[in-house]
């Protein structure tokens, strides 16, 4: 092991000590119902509800910016229970059940619960600098924003070229939808239609396969098709990372991998059976 790697390991061990004991983050419930199409609740997922000191404080800060919203963390067990209870008779449940990697299941879950109930979804390592209801108005049924990464598949329709970032991936780590939104229906159908291609196949880069099957690649593909057909009616379009207000990595969030190894390092593996 090189001196650089040794120093990095020592630094992580020290950080791990300072981040403990882990703190339990309870759900935030708000009963003041807002008159808006997007349900006033933020869904997040993680293996459990225990977080390191810095990550815990960052999540609390995100919530304090949004006192008028409810926040609910779904643990792995909660996600499994929700999917079985609400989607067992749908074809998407078979894909969920046969998924071998957590982020693939999380992608499916976020689309399902937002279609079923509406609201916001944010990855547990992401956030926003301003209140979420400042990003849209009462009549907004969907927020779209962009990653700062380019999608190498060019748009097929001239309507897409009129968007703020026609060549970028649509942002997928922070979502906001009205209940039963047509886009989410189309997205779930497209994932289902592509299942046989990914089923049981070994991928040299499993992360890239997930990005294309259920992640930003698929999300961008379906979003382009949706906007081509239905336009921007009810859509709030924001520039990269919610007009620069999105936080890609909240403070302390990297510490969560002390419990669960990131799927980024997987090689030559299946993503689903």
What distinguishing features does this structure have?
Spore Coat Polysaccharide Biosynthesis Protein SpsA, Chain A; four-stranded mixed β-sheet; 10 helices; alpha/beta; 273 residues; three-stranded mixed β-sheet
Q: Helix-strand pattern, N to C?
A: HEEEHEHHHEEEEEHHEHHEHEE
Distance N to C terminus:
36 Å
Return Rg in Å.
19 Å
Total beta strand runs: 13
Low-confidence stretches: none
Measured as a percent range, the helix fraction is 25-40%
Name of the top-level CATH class: Alpha Beta
Stated plainly, the CATH topology is called Spore Coat Polysaccharide Biosynthesis Protein SpsA, Chain A
Structural class: alpha/beta
Strand content: 15-25%
Task: Determine the number of helices (DSSP H or I, runs of at least 4 residues).
Answer: 10
What is the spatial order of strands in the main beta sheet? Answer: 4-2-5-9
What is the CATH architecture annotation?
A: Alpha-Beta Complex
The mean pLDDT is 93
Short description:
This protein is an alpha/beta fold and 273 residues long. It has a single domain (36-270), classed as Alpha-Beta Complex (Spore Coat Polysaccharide Biosynthesis Protein SpsA, Chain A). The chain has helices spanning 3-19, 53-64, 76-87, 91-97, 102-117, 182-193, 195-198, 206-213, 216-230, 240-244, and strands spanning 23-24, 41-45, 50-51, 70-74, 119-122, 127-128, 142-150, 168-170, 174-177, 202-203, 235-239, 246-247, 269-270.
Topology:
Elements: H1 3-19, E1 23-24, E2 41-45, E3 50-51, H2 53-64, E4 70-74, H3 76-87, H4 91-97, H5 102-117, E5 119-122, E6 127-128, E7 142-150, E8 168-170, E9 174-177, H6 182-193, H7 195-198, E10 202-203, H8 206-213, H9 216-230, E11 235-239, H10 240-244, E12 246-247, E13 269-270
Parallel strand pairs: 2-4, 2-5, 7-11
Antiparallel strand pairs: 1-3, 5-9, 6-12, 7-8, 10-13
